[in-house]
Amino acid sequence: MTDMPLTGTATLATLPYALPECGHSRVALFAIRRMGAHGLGDARAAHVLFSTFGESFRRPLTLLRAFMADMAASAMQPIAIAPCCCARMTPAERTLLSVLARVETRSDSARLLMQDLLGQRGVDGVLASAAAVAAAFADEGRPLAM
Known about the structure:
With 146 residues, the protein is mostly helical. It has helices at 8-14, 23-38, 43-53, 58-74, 91-102, 107-118, 124-139; strands at 17-18, 88-89.
């Protein structure tokens, strides 16, 4: 079998969505990607949140770590996360950001998305973590949007 170069079509099939226009959502996505690939204690994820939130970085960082841990513990199927350098998103990443953006305003929609993402119906704990993350960003003047 020969190695075939990745074509634009293959990239669009595996990473079909553009990055969010909202800069705050891009920060959240970067931290999610770093923690998903390198663990909850990733220094670069902590640094980007420190750079974004300044002295108030601890709350968003801690809540994002808890959210990631809750998702990992509750997921019944893999959640595809792209490397940090990718300029596009996986369907799972888009779903995650959509949940974070709408968990406080359209909770029924967020619940359905989270159920599909995790592959199970009992998602109350994970949704509570998502709401806490969204509130932490919003309270610091950085609401998440899709």
